[in-house]
Structures are given as C-alpha cells and as structure tokens.
Amino acid sequence: MGAYKPLDPRNQLKPSSKTPGCFLSKPVCASLVCGVLSLALLHLLCCSSPGTQQAVLSPLRQYINNTYSFVSSVPGNNGKSCNYSEGRWVWAPGHARRYNATECNVKERQDCIRNGRPDTKYLDWRWQPTGCPLPAFDARTFLSAVRGKHVAFIGDSMARNQAQSLICLLTAVFPYHLVYRDTGEHKHNFWRYAFPSHDVTVSYYWAPFLVRGKGKPEDDGIKENHVHLDVPGDRWAADVDTIDVAVLAAGHWLLNGAVYYNSSQVIGAHNAPPEYSNYTKIGYAWPLHMAYRKAVERLSSGGRPRTVVLATFSPSHFAGRPTDSPTACTKMEPYEEGEEELVWIFKEVRDIVCEEAELAKARVVAGEGGGGGATRIEVLDVTKLAWMRPDGHPSVYMNYHPFEHGVPERMYSDCLHFCLPGPVDTFNEILVQILKRRR
Ligand SMILES: *[C@@H]1O[C@H](CO)[C@@H](O)[C@H](O)[C@H]1NC(C)=O
Ligand SMILES: *[C@@H]1O[C@H](CO)[C@@H](O)[C@H](O)[C@H]1NC(C)=O
Ligand SMILES: *[C@@H]1O[C@H](CO)[C@@H](O)[C@H](O)[C@H]1NC(C)=O
Ligand SMILES: *[C@@H]1O[C@H](CO)[C@@H](O)[C@H](O)[C@H]1NC(C)=O
Ligand SMILES: *[C@@H]1O[C@H](CO)[C@@H](O)[C@H](O)[C@H]1NC(C)=O
C-alpha cells in the first residue's frame, strides 16, 4: 500500500476519547476485513455474466412510472413539521434505480454502473425519517415548487454531486436544454440547464470555499489554496441578482487547508505549505464560519427575496485508510444504528453550518442586509443519512472497469462522493420537501 495522502480530514484527529488500543487497531482490522470482502467482490465480477450488469437498470423506466403514480396518490403531506435529520435506511428494492447517469452527463467518476460496479444493492434503500414519511423524488413537484425560478448550487464537489443528481432526476422526466457549460477542465464546474415547461433554470457554481478561492480551485495543477474570506466566490457572485434559490455546501476544502486573507492581508493558514508556517495557525472552524457567513450575507442582500439552503457536511469513509488502496471503502451495506459513531470532526463541521444558519435567521429577522426580511434560510441536514451510507461511494469504481487488467496493488478509491444514482438522490428528496413548504 502506498503513502498516505492527506485527502481525508481524519488526518486532523485530536486525541480520541476511546481507549488507545481500540483506536489504533480499528483501521487495521477494518482493512483486513475489507481485503476479504474485495476478494468476494472480484469473484462476483469475474464470474457473473455480462447480463447481470445490463439487468441493473432495465426495470428503470417502469419503476419511474410506478414511483410517480405512487407519489401522486399519496394525500398531501406538506412535510411542514418533519425533521428529516434523524432516521434510518430501510430496504426498498429499486428505490434509487431512477435514471441512467451516462445519459445525464454526470462526472464519469461517479457513474458507477458505467464503470462496472457489480453489486447494486446500494440502489435498494430509502431514507425513513423518524416519525414522518419522505416521499420519493417527484420531478413535477420539484419544478412546481420552484416555478419561474433560478436554482443555484454553490460549493464543493458534494454540492456538485447533489446538483448532478437533481439534473438526472429532472431530465429523466421533463424536457430540458443545456443553457451553458464551461469547456475543458471546468466543464462539470459551471453549467446551467433550463426546464421550459416550468420556466426553471438549475445551475452549478464551483466554489469549494464559497468565498473567493485562488490557486488550486482555479487550476488543479496548483497545490495551494489562497482564500479571501472577505469576498464571495467570483462566478456565483456575478450572477447573484438572478438567483432565487441557493443551495450551499462546503467544508472538505477548509479541512484540507489554505492560506486565508482579509482584504489582501494574510490573516492565517491551516495545513498550508511550510513557507506559510510563520503565519497564525487559524484552524478550519473559524474560516468555515466566516466563509458561510460571507456567502449567506451576500445572498441575503440586494432586496431580491431568496431561499438560501445550507446543506450540512456529507462525511467521507476513508477512516484513515490510504486513498490509493483498492480496499479503502468496500462496505456493501449501510451502517446499522450504533455501528459506527460519526467522527467528531464531521459532527463539528455539521454543527458549524447549523450555527451559521441560526445566526443568519436571526440577522434576517433583525432586518439586516437590506433583504427586508425576505430571505428565507433553511438547513438541509444530510450528515447523519450520508454517514450511514459507506456503501454508496464509487470506491474503486471511480475508475472505468478497474479490474479489467488484473488487480493492482494501488488504485484510487473515492470514499467521499456518492455514486449516481445513489444515496445523494435522497438529498434532493429532502430538498423538494423544504422548497414546497410555505414561506
Ligand atoms: C446507459 O446509457 C448509455 C448511453 O445511452 C448506454 O450505453 C448504457 O447501456 C446504459 N446503461 C444501462 C445500464 O442501461
Ligand atoms: C410510462 O408511462 C408512459 C405514459 O403513461 C408510457 O407511455 C410508457 O410506456 C410507460 N413506460 C413503462 C416502461 O411502463
Ligand atoms: C432536527 O434534528 C436534529 C438532530 O436531532 C437536531 O439537531 C435539529 O435541531 C432538529 N431540527 C429542528 C428544526 O428541530
Ligand atoms: C476583515 O477585516 C475587517 C476590517 O478590519 C473586519 O471588519 C472583518 O471582520 C474581517 N473579516 C475577516 C473574515 O477576518
Ligand atoms: C512570513 O514569512 C514570509 C517570507 O519569509 C514573510 O514575507 C512574511 O512577512 C512573514 N509573515 C509573518 C507574519 O511573519
């Protein structure tokens, strides 16, 4: 196995409250177990007929039809008092088999079925919130809830994951056209689709720090992040006067680190290259607060009535294992309740987002920002439901048919994003419920 690559926020572990023995041995045990699992997986791959993979999505169209007739026959649950944060994943065959990701142009690395992922049980679960129903995604309900509006996803690759899921869920059912897409390296990072039947547009703006990020965010060949906490992200801020609904998601890049600025002055650094070691160690928490605050502030100003949805942190499942290990994440079922406690740092990042939402609500009520109290702030709390789905990541199936030429010792695994279709579709099931509530 290769050298550890610090992509995983767990490299920032503070002393755990667990006993050291347990803490140290856990990842080791886990990768042993994973090794066995992945052999089983390989066996399945070599020895199952090609028809197995074709069969994956064949009931798809019929399923879409069934889902819609089912949903439209459910008497109006307006979801007003439902808290979707807590719940459990329940077995629901076919629930997430709703579209062919190749046809809606998702990032190839998250198109797990195209890439040959042989086990598809991860598509057979639905989120059951505690004490209330969560209807399956219904494209008509979504488009009706945002009729005439511009919905913008702003943030890191988890924001993109959710935005692409939404596009797939909508384009599988309604006519659309692509309004705009960047070319080259950023083709998945800046785009807009239109749904003329409801006069709706949906955009994605790459802004992994929400605020202005120079260096790596603009050019992947650069190693450093230079982040200006006093300036909103340039691309989305330029369009802000057209945005009616904004969904924000960030956090992973702030954990990874950056050099932070306020009006061109360096104010501190976190996990930055050695030449910045003489600057204040700023940590990730305060910059995260400031980044969300700046973004929400910009979105609450200008007088346009907007809905701003703060999505909470969607955790990764590397669990300290090397990202170039083929067995970094190979679980094939959701966690059961109590099986793995949410890693403290992920909980902390979630809580920061919730705190910023509360602060923003208070500011709106106080009438700050000139929005005249017209800004509606909502939280899309996905941390728990995402944490419970270690099986939903592309893992080695971020690569095209990874075992075509044998089993390499090293191979990158994606234990952060979700396969499309997959658990991230549930983020949008909840988003619909939030957006259709009365203001
Ligand atoms: C998905 O769509 C692509 C492109 O149309 C097609 O080649 C592929 O076979 C489809 N996959 C499944 C599982 O139906
Ligand atoms: C889905 O419903 C539409 C319209 O009711 C129908 O034309 C189509 O054949 C159905 N598809 C399947 C696979 O049942
Ligand atoms: C929903 O539940 C979560 C987790 O228990 C809690 O943190 C949050 O405050 C609740 N939200 C509301 C609006 O009650
Ligand atoms: C930047 O500096 C201004 C002026 O001193 C201050 O009001 C603001 O809070 C600072 N912002 C950040 C993110 O440090
Ligand atoms: C840190 O070091 C750099 C280059 O050596 C220097 O330009 C900068 O002023 C130093 N900053 C502080 C806060 O000492």
From TrEMBL:
Q: Where in the cell is it found?
A: Golgi apparatus membrane
Do the record's keywords include Transmembrane? yes
Q: Name one GO cellular component term.
A: Golgi membrane
Superkingdom as given in the UniProt entry = Eukaryota
Q: Note the topology in the membrane.
A: Single-pass type II membrane protein
Q: Which residues form the Trichome birefringence-like N-terminal domain?
A: 80-132
Chief location? Golgi
* Domain Trichome birefringence-like C-terminal residue range list: 134-433
- Short name of any one Pfam family annotated for the protein: PC-Esterase
| Cited InterPro entries | TBL, TBL_C, TBL_N
As one GO molecular function, the record gives:
xylan O-acetyltransferase activity
* Keyword list, A-Z: Golgi apparatus, Membrane, Signal-anchor, Transferase, Transmembrane, Transmembrane helix
Recorded family membership:
Belongs to the PC-esterase family. TBL subfamily.
The name this protein goes by in its record: Trichome birefringence-like N-terminal domain-containing protein
Q: In which organism is this protein found?
A: Digitaria exilis
